[in-house]
Amino acid sequence: MSTDNSIVLPVVDLSGYLHPTSPADKARVIAEVREACSEYGFFQVKGHGVPLDMQKALLQSLRNLFSLPQEEKLKLSFLNNPCRRGYEASGMSVREGDAMADSKEPFWVQKAFYIGREDPVIERPGFYGPNVWPDLAEEDFHGPVWEYYQATDKLGKMIWEILLQGLGHPPSLMEAFSKRPFVQMKMIRYPPASATLPGQYGVGAHTDFGGVTVLLQEAGREGLEVWHEGRQEWLPVPAMENMYIINCGDMIQNWSGGQYKSAKHRVINKSDHERLSCATFWHGDVGASNPLNPSDPDRETVGQLLVKRFGRQFSLSKTVVEQVRAS
Q1: What residues does the Fe2OG dioxygenase domain cover (predicted)?
Q2: What are the structural domains of the chain?
Q3: What's the pTM value of the predicted model, to 2 decimals?
Q4: In whole angstroms, what is the distance from residue 69 CA to residue 72 CA?
């Protein structure tokens, strides 16, 4: 299918919501987000409140992590962690329908890393618990990464508040599903184009399963494309400094009765440079079901939806799957 470079995703300036000078400022932001999510399921944001220095420190931390010897990263494999935190090796994220493994790296240099809420005890079962951290100096990884996680956690929650108001709900509705939200962050290094095989994507076409995704792209390293159903074509998304990409997942589409879209997207790194990105996924409480429509006959919880989606793609134990399905 074609890619039309003349079409770009809407850009929303969130400063009017963060620092309004009148009620009209907030109303404008809410309306722009509502329109973007209804049309595209994606939009770009500036004026988001995450300092540029913090973003750059996060990207440098990723470089520090991904330059470690492979054997050191494999010791932190998320498959050995009950909370699915840590390092992801090649072939662990094959989506249904993909012809071959994602090329987030060929097997000899594959790199991705997950963190989430920092809880001392493993609970429900494995959604909450401690992170694992590489053996790097505090200032080289843990410090900048954790500071960034907290900032994008806050941004993701704010986007949820805006989305709710766009549907006519008060921001206080957040209380129904954000007492202890499940917020996961994934850090990725994509290989240069020369290191991939024909037909192999950085990430194959997919929709996100759950809530709000807050995506940072390394400036100048394009690769993300969004499928526009109406135009039947892939829209390239520029990687601009200090600009975030926001999108809605399947859960938001379902909870909103289809008023907000969950769009397919993919990553194709066409350059001969590595490409770094970082996505923070803000879903909500694991035990929460649709708060927008309490009479919705589909009462699947966030945790049940997650297991339904990722049980086909990742190595979740049968015990975890059955416990969540029964909750």
Answers
A1: 181-285
A2: 11-326 (2.60.120.330)
A3: 0.89
A4: 5
